[in-house]
Amino acid sequence: MGVxxxxxxxxxxxxxxxxxxxxKLPQMNKCPxxxxxxxxxxxxxxxxxxxxxxxxxxxxxA
Length: 62
Prior knowledge:
Layout: H1 10-18, H2 20-23, E1 29-30, E2 37-38, E3 49-50, E4 53-54
């Protein structure tokens, strides 16, 4: 069975593991109020609603 001759350096380990975060892109959902794309479990940046109630006041053209 093949066994590594030397231990991989910590720098090489971090470089290998860093690519895993690139693979997963954030999934966008449609806001039920305005149908704008928004991240799940966050306030909609277009209308300011979260869970059916207004949380932020959004000004148009800002």
